[in-house]
Design a protein that fits this description.
The protein is about 10% helix and about 45% strand. The chain is mainly beta.
């Protein structure tokens, strides 16, 4: 139950290839003796030992041929190919296998839903591994609505002879309902039969509305949404994601590392749709220049400043966003000018930015900026001193019981699915003493659509 299941999302490949015993397996224990353990760490040695035995029996075989022999000799199990692949490893059968077939399983991919029928072509390579001539019969095992034309269907192979056969799959889209999840795809088998044995090659394909997003590098976050309220927020672990969706129009928001935001809007999805998203699509540079009350840029070499930031691309219709946050000493950022990179986007999106900067504990600065009418070129946002509102903030604390505190300013954002806040605790800063007062310079944004907020806390120590 805890093993990885298929299919693979990139090509709808069959996964796993095979299974092996992996639950309650008696194995060596550290320090001596034995104990029962479970996991792929237990199943893998079964397959490794079998591969080593086949290498000894057939030193002329390539690693790929050994792999195929292990898969093709597996014992069929009454489970989906996306659970058990070709079945349970069968060492005895693999040793006596008379033929090899490549590939050992076939993916026909994602079917188009736009036509009444869908056709795909593949080939199989079949080799006689014995020292006598063998007769072959190739036959498909399918369901109604799916047919596989095999050319040729029967033939003879001399010892060690190899032959390529062609497979033509035809699927009647009107007879096959859309699959509702990736594991529910249509599967079948190709049986390769000789007078001695039968090898079954599983195949599969998926019918439905599939949105595949390919990234040129793994992003921090991507959000897929439509105007009907669907919001799917993902943190990809690799360079692609695949979703089963309803037919319609979708937007894709992607946040790459180093503050690169890409917006893809109004993507029609019907059947299989592939969208490529590149970090370089964020081609407009937005520079934010933070200054103090004297219009002096913050000194990034100073160890007295701490900084926390929160930024994101926000959809004002659905209320979904991609968000980044950070906190550090200002001198670790390397610059008092902050550069973001953003793709073009429409007026239904807003890019928002907020920063809290503290000089020790006596003076704080809070900045907000929002781009709410799209962007078409590089942009510089200057935080001029005259735009900052000066506030005196006092913490209402009993000085008889509290001698000093450490104040923290939080920045938050709330969309329809989550609440995120960020602050930075600078343990090197001195405490705040009675009357527990801070001078604050604040610049907000006029937009009421970007859901930024700030709040303060004071910790005693």
């Amino acid at each position: 139950s805890f093993s990885s299941k298929g299919p693979t999302v990139e090509s709808y490949g069959i996964k796993p290839d095979i299974v092996a015993p992996g639950v309650g397996v008696l194995s060596c224990k550290l320090g001596g003796g034995y104990m029962a353990m479970s996991g792929t760490s237990m199943a893998a040695p079964f397959v490794t030992g079998l591969a080593a035995s086949l290498r000894k029996l057939h030193p002329e075989w390539s690693a790929y041929e050994i792999r195929n022999a292990i898969i093709e000799s597996a014992e069929n199990l009454p489970q989906s190919v996306f659970v058990s692949g070709s079945g349970m490893v069968n060492p005895l059968q693999s040793i006596h296998l008379t033929s090899s077939v490549s590939p050992s399983n076939i993916s026909f991919g994602f079917a188009s839903t736009q036509n009444e029928s869908w056709n795909q072509s593949r080939t199989l390579s079949i080799k006689n591994e014995t020292n006598e001539e063998l007769s072959y019969v190739i036959s498909p095992q399918t369901i109604a609505g799916i047919s596989v034309r095999i050319t040729p269907q029967s033939f003879q192979l001399k010892p060690k002879e190899e032959k390529i056969i062609s497979l033509e799959l035809n699927a009647s889209m009107t007879m096959l309902p859309n699959n509702k999840s990736l594991q529910d795809g249509y599967v079948g088998k190709i049986a390769v039969t000789t007078q001695y044995d039968t090898i079954t090659i599983p195949f599969g394909f998926f019918k439905g509305n599939v949105l595949q997003v390919n990234f040129d590098e793994t992003p921090w976050q991507t959000v897929i949404l439509n105007n009907k309220g669907l919001v799917k927020s993902l943190n990809p672990q690799k360079n692609n994601v695949t979703l089963i969706v309803s037919e319609g129009t979708y937007d894709i928001l992607t946040n790459f590392y180093s503050s690169h935001y890409v917006v893809k809007e109004n993507i029609p999805v019907a059947g299989s749709t592939i969208v490529d998203v590149a970090k370089s699509d964020a081609s407009h540079k937005v520079t934010l220049q933070l200054v103090d009350e004297n219009n002096e840029p913050f000194n990034s070499e100073s160890a007295n400043y701490s900084l926390s930031t929160l930024e994101g691309m926000f959809n004002t219709t659905i209320g979904a966003s991609v968000i980044s946050m950070s906190g550090s000493r200002l001198n670790t950022t390397g610059s008092a000018s902050f550069e973001k990179y953003i793709s073009s986007f429409s007026s239904k999106y807003i890019f928002g930015y907020a920063a809290n900067c503290m000089e020790g504990n006596t003076t704080t600065y809070s900045f907000e900026a929002a781009l709410e009418h799209g962007i078409k070129s590089d942009t510089v946002i200057n935080f001029a001193a005259e735009q900052n509102k000066k506030l005196e903030v006092r913490y209402d604390l009993d000085s008889n019981n509290v001698k000093r505190v450490f104040p923290i300013t939080w920045t938050g954002i709330k969309d329809n699915s989550r609440l995120v806040s960020v602050s930075f605790y600078d343990e090197a800063a001195a405490g705040l003493y009675y009357p527990f007062q801070q001078t604050t310079y604040f610049r907000g944004v006029s937009s009421s659509k970007f859901p930024l907020f700030h709040y303060r806390e004071a910790y005693t120590f």
